[in-house]
Specification:
14 helices, 8-stranded mixed β-sheet
Length: 490
């Protein structure tokens, strides 16, 4: 979106808890908020309001924090935040780390950035090209920046370990609550969920042996792997996409590589067409890209998100092994560009919305493998009070108790910045599954040490969570099967 002079505009940041949107936009604010939404950043929604909206309702400005925008502020609006990390892993306070990062941005020049790690241009275009970046607003967990294209490229190359950034989009997004009929569909499914011995047989067929092999290929730990990194902008990322497509197709899915933006590897979208005449579609997602920290290009991503991607492959193998035919359509999606603000999944979810796709649910698996020493196996679920759909979250919790009772289930205490958010923002029922019902505890997060051969990396926990994903799809989609048990292939 091109602002013709920013002085009349202000950014409104509203807590997710203060504006949950479960029942739609409050009537008094519908006209202004429905046309000015720019996405969710951390635990807040962002709206860019013009003077007319600001002057029309004083109470609107009291919903959250107002940030004045000016012409000189830069070329892109970018949200920069530190992830919700366990205090034991935080080397310094957030303010100290943020000040250090901003200092690096000031001191680096474009010549410090390798072209292949440069991020594609972000998107909110202002009128004049002032300084490289400006801090517009700071919060307890991050900051809003106005950044030039140069600063944005430096930012991508210099992020510390637990930090991430999300550029604002080029134009307002639809502000679409999950419609009542979609929630009612899930409520009906929830009422029918109970132990099914056939489903138990299918999900128990997920193989730890294959999970191990798939993760090691994705990380390059397998000597036969051709992948040195899955950094979002590396030459190996498209190779990883091609390998995933081949694997899924060999297991009976129909797949395509879907480009979405120049500079990124494609999304890998695989489909099982339902046996019944229906447009209903269920989506399982993970992201296969990764990133390093402080400009590090080596990004093996065994946990983030090789674990979720391997879970998708494990699910596909179990489907093939038992000859499962779903009654409704099922998609397995391995997204790219998640580390730069869910770029790939945002493009795909938007495409589905524009096509009028009937998406019953979307479950995102991101970081399933790490178990902190002394912790029991866990399943962390996104908190629907922040992001997601309560009926879907409850389905996952109930199914875990039935098919993976070894998992301790709970909500993790933050929105979960992964690809389920892209579907949630398009009005689709969505939830995330994660390795713990707490803050990030993996000490190798976003580093070259994110390998599977290390303490705390738990393939059995990946299997347990993948069983929950697959059982949810089987219960909600319905299925037929061949009642055979094909031997596992090496």
């Amino acid at each position: 979106m091109r602002f013709l002079g920013l002085a009349p505009y202000s950014l409104l940041l509203v807590s997710l808890r203060d504006l949950p949107l479960r029942d739609g936009i409050p009537t008094a604010y519908t006209e202004c908020l429905s046309s000015s939404y720019y996405g969710t950043y951390g635990a807040r929604r962002a709206f860019v309001l013009d003077r007319r909206c600001i002057e029309s309702s004083f109470s609107l400005t009291q919903l959250g924090t107002m940030v004045r925008l000016h012409e000189r502020d830069g070329e892109n609006l970018v949200w920069l935040e530190r992830g919700p990390v366990d205090p034991s892993l935080a080397a310094a306070s957030l303010d100290t780390e943020l000040d250090s990062l901003l200092g690096n941005l000031r001191n680096l020049s474009p010549s410090d950035i390798e072209p292949r790690t440069a991020a594609p241009s972000a998107q909110v275009t202002l009128q004049s090209p002032p300084k490289e970046f400006t801090v517009l607003h700071r919060t307890h967990d991050g900051a809003l920046l106005s950044a030039s294209e140069v600063a944005l490229r430096v930012l991508d190359a210099q992020l510390p370990t637990f930090w991430r950034y999300t550029p604002f989009p080029a134009s307002p997004l639809p502000l679409v609550p999950v419609p009542p009929r979609a929630r009612e569909r899930l409520r009906k499914a929830l009422a029918t969920i109970r132990f099914n011995h056939i489903i138990a047989a299918i999900v128990n067929g997920i193989s730890v042996h294959h999970l191990h092999n798939d993760v090691r290929y994705l990380t390059g730990e397998d000597p036969a792997s051709t992948l040195a990194t899955r950094h979002s902008f590396s030459e190996d990322a498209p190779r990883a996409a091609a390998w995933l497509k081949t694997q899924f197709e060999s297991l009976g899915a129909e797949c395509e590589l879907k480009p979405f933006e120049e500079g990124y590897a494609p999304n890998v979208i695989c489909k099982y067409t339902g046996s019944e005449e229906t447009t209903e579609t269920l989506v399982l997602g993970a992201h296969y890209d990764d990133r390093g920290s402080f400009g590090e290009v080596r990004a093996p991503g065994a946990n983030d998100d090789g674990s979720g991607t391997a879970a998708l492959l494990g699910i596909a193998r179990a489907i093939a092994r038992r000859g499962v035919v779903f009654k409704t359509n099922v998609l397995l999606c391995a997204f790219a560009g998640e580390e730069q603000g869910m770029v790939g999944s945002k493009a795909y979810a938007k495409e589905l919305r524009e096509q009028g796709a009937n998406v019953t649910l979307m479950i995102q698996a991101d970081m399933l493998a790490y178990r902190k020493p002394g912790d029991a196996p866990q399943l962390g679920l996104s908190d629907p009070a922040l992001v997601g759909t309560p009926e879907l979250t409850q389905i996952l919790a109930n199914i875990s108790a039935i098919y993976s009772p070894e998992l301790t289930v709970g909500h993790f205490p933050y929105p979960g910045g992964s690809d389920h958010l892209s579907f949630h923002e398009q009005g689709y029922p969505a939830a995330q599954v994660y390795e713990r019902a707490d803050l990030i505890a993996d000490p190798m997060y976003h580093s070259s040490g994110d390998l599977s051969d290390r303490e705390g990396y738990d393939f059995e926990q990946i299997k347990s969570i993948a069983k929950v994903e697959l059982a949810a799809i089987l219960h909600v989609a319905g299925f037929d099967w061949d009642n055979v048990d094909e031997p596992e292939q090496e």
